[in-house]
TrEMBL record:
One of its GO terms (biological process) is protein transport. InterPro entries: Preprotein_translocase_YajC. GO terms for cellular component: plasma membrane. It holds the Pfam family YajC. It is a single-pass membrane protein. The chain crosses the membrane at residues 16-34. Its main location: membrane. Keywords: Cell membrane, Membrane, Protein transport, Translocation, Transmembrane, Transmembrane helix, Transport. This is Sec translocon accessory complex subunit YajC.
Length: 103
């Protein structure tokens, strides 16, 4: 009985260390996981908004191509000479020219 009394007193003693620890864990998760991911998503959205005809891009599926036409929600890519595909604008992921320069 004496040992259980000590455990109950320690658990409900009004100590705010658990609350502080949980806030610290959430802050660490925010700054190391959530914030960088939101920043990356904003960069990709800005890139998709500023697409231009003639720009070389990479799709989310890994297809390299050159933009031939831009419509409201679709883009026509030329993946080889005379081979054009129509894809959703949101599936364009990166600039191919910038990606090749970094390698």
């Amino acid at each position: 009985m004496n040992l259980s009394f000590v455990f109950l007193q320690a658990a409900g003693g009004g100590d705010y260390s658990f609350l502080i620890m949980m806030v610290a864990i959430f802050a660490i998760m925010y700054f190391f996981m959530i914030r960088p991911q939101n920043k990356k998503q904003k960069e990709i959205a800005n890139f998709r908004k500023n697409l231009e005809v003639g720009q070389e891009v990479i799709t989310a599926g890994g297809i390299y191509g050159k933009i031939k036409e831009i419509e409201d929600s679709t883009v026509v890519l030329e993946v080889a000479s005379g081979v054009k595909i129509k894809i959703d604008r949101n599936s364009i992921y990166a600039n191919a020219a910038a990606n090749q320069q970094t390698k």
